[in-house]
Amino acid sequence: MATHSHAHGGGAHADTHAHHDEKPSGIKRWLYTTNHKDIGTMYLVFSGIMFFIGGAFAMVIRAELFKPGLQVVDPGLFNEFTTLHALIMIFGAVMPGWVGLANWMVPMQVGAPDMALPRMNNYSFWILPFAFTLLIGSMFVPGGGPAGGWTLYPPLSLQAGNSLPLTIFAIHLMGASSIMGAINIIVTIMNLRMKEMSLLHMPLFVWTWLITAYLLIAVMPVLAGAVTMLLTDHFFGTSFFSAAGGGDPVMFQHIFWFFGHPEVYILILPAFGIVSEVIPTFSRKPLFGYDAMVYATASIAFLSFIVWAHHMFTVGMPLAGQLFFMLSTMLIAVPTGVKVFNWTATMWKGSLSFEPPMLFALAFLFLFTIGGFSGLMLAIVPADFQYHDTYFVVAHFHYVLVPGAIFGIMAGVYLWLPKWTGHMYDMKLATWHFWLSAIFVNVLFFPQHFLGLAGMPRRIPDYATQFTDWNMWSSIGAFGFGLSQLLFPYIIYKCVKGGAKASSDVWEGAHGLEWLLPSPPPYHSWETPPRVKFGDEPGEFDPHAAKAK
Amino acid sequence: MAEVDPERRRRVRRTAIVLTLIVLAFYFGFILLGVVRS
Question: How far apart are the first and last CA of chain A?
Answer without folding.
Answer: 29
